[in-house]
Every structure is written in C-alpha cells, then in structure tokens.
Design goal:
This protein is of the alpha/beta class and about 290 residues long. Helix content is about 35%, strand content about 25%. The chain folds into two domains: about 200 residues, Alpha/Beta hydrolase fold, catalytic domain (Rossmann fold, 3-Layer(aba) Sandwich); about 45 residues, no CATH class. Helix 1 packs across helix 9 and helix 2 crosses helix 3.
C-alpha cells in the first residue's frame, strides 16, 4: 500500500482532517487509488462513484467533507478501470465493482477501522447493494440514484439497435460529439449488464442491514420508478426523494450530504470514535521514508 498526505481544517470545525492518497490492490492484482479523509476516527465510511465517474465526483467529495465535520473518516476511491485505478474500463462489471469494494473493506478492517457505512452513487449504488447481498459485515448502506432495472437506460446511450450491432460486430464504440471514441461496449460486458439482476440481490440483504435510497425527483437518467422498486424489495429500507434534484444533485449537494450523514449517525450509538490512528499512521509514514 502506498501513502501520500496533505491536511486541512474541516469546515465549521477545529478538527484537523488529513487527506491521504492510498493504493489498495484488489483480488485481480490491480491497484485501486483512493483518498482517505482521516479524522483519527475508528469509524470509516466508504464512498463509491458511478458510471464513467471517479472518486472526484462532486457528491462524494461533498459527503466526505460533511462526514469529516462530524469526526467520521471517509474513503472515496476509483473502481478498477476508472479514474487513476488500474484495469480496463468495462460497461458492465457490476460484480467486479463489488469485488473492488470488498478489497477496500477488508483493507480497512485489517487497519482496525469499523466500517460504519458504504455509500454509492448511481452505478456505485448497485455496487453497495450487491456487496450487502453477498456479505453481511456492513450494516448501513446508502444507495444514491441507483438503477433497479439494468435493462433500462441502454437504448439512451447506445441506440435502439444496440443488440443487433453488438451481435454483428462484437462491440459498440461510443463516441462523443467530436467523433472521438470515449469507451467500448463489448459483447461480454453487455451480457454482464443484462444478466445482473438486482431484485434477487435485494432479497438477500440481511434485515438487520439499514438501507437508505435517495433519488432526485427530476432524475432524467434513472427513473424514480427504480427507487420505488428498491423500497418494495428491501426489507429494512427508507426512501427519500429530493424534490427538483437531478441525477447528480447539481443544485442539492448540501441536502444530499445532510441526508446521508444523518442516516449514518442514527446507527452510531455506543461506538468508540476517536482513537490514536493518526499516531500509528505517522509511524507508518516514517517507516516508509
């Protein structure tokens, strides 16, 4: 694991937050790059980005800052094939995203953190729900704008004839307005998406696991119908629609961050928080110099 650091004061707080760049290796041998907002707390929240996004997603940065103001550390990272992390970008990869998240969770458990919650935006929302269905070691999950029906939304990006094209050529190159290829959808990655069924996964989430779904009422990318489906399928679930918010909560960042933090704090009773983790990190840095 690699480290580098900088520090700043959390807004509206005398708490010093150290931003640490951390690299974690997933089970495929790929390096995942992330930023740890270290508050010297034993508690940690892991933040997951969406499709073709990164750890620099505005919503994740806003939530990490809001958590730090409450004295809770946060880690936002790039899934493999995205941002600064190694690996090739894939259109599907829902289960591999959950594998990446597993590597991150295990790393911080070994580092004596308590994983207070996992939070995902858009495709990252699917990752945290699939994780919760597979494993039962994190008991607070926040799904922000996740998609319930993965068969939806494909035509909007690839066109109505996407299946014919991908069967014919084996792939579809998605281009920007200037005609530059921005990513390739392979037959394998399409199959991965079409065969990933979130519904059965939701039924496997332990009823002791608290799940919050937040969705914007004006989301033009993922319908509010998806949020309602999550509410029907997950036993211990709370749904909150933010009126007027779009998929990225462009004009609703403060409200989004507040909702996420408040939900996480509801389940915080009795957890020891401040521990001398920073002292141990300082020693770790010295050992590497």
């Amino acid at each position: 694991m690699e480290h580098s650091s900088s520090s700043h004061k959390a807004k509206h707080s005398s708490l010093e937050v150290r931003d640490l760049r951390i690299t974690i290796v997933n089970k495929y041998g790929e390096k995942l790059v992330g930023v740890l907002h270290e508050t010297c707390s034993i508690e940690l929240v892991i933040l997951c980005h969406g499709f073709r996004s990164s750890k620099e997603c505005t919503s994740l940065v806003s939530i990490a800052s809001a958590l730090a103001n409450k004295g809770i550390s946060a880690f936002r990272f790039d899934f493999s094939g995205n941002g600064e992390s190694e690996g090739s970008f894939q259109y599907g990869n829902y289960h591999k995203d959950a594998d990446d998240l597993r590597a991150v969770v295990l790393h911080f458990i070994r580092d004596n953190h308590v994983i207070r919650a996992i939070v995902g935006h858009s495709k990252g929302g699917n990752a945290v729900l699939i994780y919760a269905a597979r494993y039962h070691d994190v008991h607070t999950v926040v799904n922000i704008s996740g998609r319930f029906n993965l068969k939806r939304g494909i035509e909007g990006r690839l066109g109505k004839d996407f299946m014919q094209r991908i069967k014919k050529d084996g792939y579809i190159d998605v281009k920007n307005m200037k005609g530059k290829i921005v990513y390739r959808v392979t037959r394998e990655s399409m199959v991965d998406r079409l065969t990933t069924d979130v519904g059965p996964a939701c039924l496997l989430i332990d009823n002791k696991c608290r799940v919050l779904t937040i969705h914007g009422s004006d989301d033009a990318i993922v319908s509010t119908e998806d949020a309602i489906e999550f509410d029907k399928m997950i036993s211990n679930h709370k749904l909150h629609l933010i009126e007027g918010a779009n998929h990225d909560f462009t004009s609703h960042q403060a409200e989004l961050a507040s909702l996420v933090v408040d939900f996480i704090l509801e389940d915080r009773k009795g957890t020891p928080n401040q521990v001398p983790l920073c002292t141990r990190l300082d020693e770790s840095f010295k050992a590497r110099l």
